[in-house]
Amino acid sequence: MDWLERTARLRQWSAGGVRAPHKPLLLLYALARFQQDPDSELPYTTVERALADLLVEYGPGRRTSPAYPFHHLVNDGVWEVHTTRGPGSPGTGVRELRASGATGRLAENLRTSLRHDTSLLPRMARILLDRHFPPSLHDDLCQAVGLELEPAETAALPGRPRSRQRDARMRQLVLTAYEYQCAFCGYDGRIGTVPVGLEAAHVRWWAFDGPDSVDNGLCLCSLHHKLFDKGVLGLADDHTVMVSQHFVSTSPAGRQVIDLAGRSLLGPQAGVQRIHPRHRAWHAQQVFHGLPRSRLTAVP
């Protein structure tokens, strides 16, 4: 049984690049729990709290009950659910899952394979990370679920055309286009002639068919790149910065983030393609959280 292929082909509703990371988040969480205690079962009430937090931080803006992936992941053959009545999930009803004492864990055959092949767990985890999240969030997500991964080579992902490779030139092209400054705040730090803390961010994530092109890239400082990928920051149709109303902070540094609301992008330089509306719209719909703050209310 090819567990890597099953991992890469989790059944989830998707159309037009819609993000549905609910099953991947649950499977990452379950792999982390297996890593800590291979024999443990996970009560729904425990998973509900943990997965709800993960969905807020790493899921799309729309809300989904943790009950849906808890029940439906069984159909992928990697997860099993038991209740006080025996094997099988009672459905997606939160009350039924709680009242029936539902517990879940990795499927028995998968647990056996993980015990026999210690390289399988990190390979599965890396497939989930690469297919559903940008690299800027991988370390944070592993820490959030409690997953420990050693550096390892990731096999070619099943189901993804082998011809699609990342373009190593993108970082240089994007940083040049934005003249080596953060498009949001203007940060342009260097050590000698080498830029530090500046990164090329994909607007539409590469994992969701975002191209390695300048019209899908922004030069951002490390902080604003992470906030952009977490949906705190976004792009409006008029090429100004959006700041989510859900983001709050009272510190001076946090207020600087809030003050970005309504600010025009810095760059790109003349003659370079601006962010394509299709990529901007994807980020606004699939990554940005909630509604944007208005410029007038950004500073009290």
TrEMBL record:
Keywords: Endonuclease, Hydrolase, Nuclease. The lineage of its organism: Bacteria, Bacillati, Actinomycetota, Actinomycetes, Kitasatosporales. Residues 4-148 form the ScoMcrA-like DNA sulfur-binding domain. This is HNH endonuclease. The keyword Hydrolase applies. GO terms for molecular function: endonuclease activity. The keyword Ribosomal protein does not apply. Pfam families: DNA-SBD_ScoMcrA, HNH_2. Residues 182-234 form the HNH nuclease domain.
